[in-house]
Amino acid sequence: MLALTLGLTLASPNPAYSAAKSLDTQAPMPWVPTLPKIAIILDDLGYNRPSGERALQLPGNITYAIIPFTPYSQIFANAAFDRNREVILHMPMESSDPTRKLDQGGLTRNQSEMEVKARVKKAIQSVPHIVGLNNHMGSNVTADTQMMQWVMQEVRNQPLYFIDSMTNPHSVANDSAAQFAIPTLKRDIFLDNVQTEAAVERMFRALIKVAQERGHAIAIGHPYPATLTYLEKVLPKLQEMGVELVDASDLVMQFGQPVDQPINAEDLLQHIVAMPAPESQRLNFSNENLYNRTL
Prior knowledge:
By secondary structure, this protein is α/β, with parallel strands linked by helices. The protein has helices spanning about 15-20, 50-55, 75-80, 115-125, 145-155, 175-180, 195-215, 225-235, 240, 250-255, 265-275, 290, and strands at about 35-45, 65, 85-95, 130-135, 160-165, 185, 190, 215-220, 245. It has a single domain, classed as TIM Barrel. Strands 1, 2, 3, 4, 5, 6, 7, 8 and 9 form a 9-stranded parallel β-sheet that branches.
C-alpha cells in the first residue's frame, strides 16, 4: 500500500561494493515495459455483512470505500487493513434526488461552514486506516463551490487524497481538492450501472481500453452479486489482459491531477467515459435485497 508521504531517505552506498563494481563493469539494467495501471474502488461497504465479506476476499489491490457510522464500517476497515488493502472514506453527501435517503453524518447544502467541517472531521475519525476519501452520492453538494471548499479545508488537515466519484457532470469537487493541494483524481468508468455480468464485463473492457490509451484509469463499482462474480473471474487474468491493478493512491500520487488528454477510442467508449455515475442504490435500509439476490 502506498504511503501518502513522498519524503525518502537514500542510504549511502556501501564503499566496498562501490569499489568492486565500477560503472565500466556493471551490466546494464534490462528495460522492463510498464503495464497500464487500473484502480478499482468498491463503494458502499458498511451495511451488509455477507456482501462486504465476499468483497474483501477479492484478489488483488482493490480499494474499499466504507460509509461511516454503519454497522460494519470499523470491522470492514480493520479487515481490509489486515489484508494489506487500501481503505478510504465514502463520505455521504446530499443528492439532487429527494428520494435518496442521506446516510448518518452526511452533508447537505443547508449546513453551515462549522457543521460541514465538523461532520467531515467526525467521519474521517470514525473509519480507521483510511488514506483517502470519495463522495457517496453528492450530486447536490459536489456542484456547490462553497460547500466543496469547506470540505477540502477540513480534508487538507489530514494526509488524505480525494477521488471525485463524478455523480454530477458539473462537479467542482476535483478542482476544489486541487485548489487546496490535496492529491486528487476523477473516476473514469462506472462498472455496474446495469447489474448483470455481461454489462459489468462491457464496462470493464472500457476501463481496460482507457488505461491502454492513457496509461491509467479508475473504476468504481459496488458489491452487487453480478459485480463480485465478474471480478472474481477476471482479476486473476489481468496480467494476460495487459494491465496492472494498483491501489487508488498509487495513481493519485503518481499523477496528482486529472489527465485530460484525449482518448483515441470509439465514439461509444468516449460517451461511456464521460457519462456521470448514477447515484448508487446503496447497501442499506430498503435496498438490501438488491445485494443479496442471485442473478
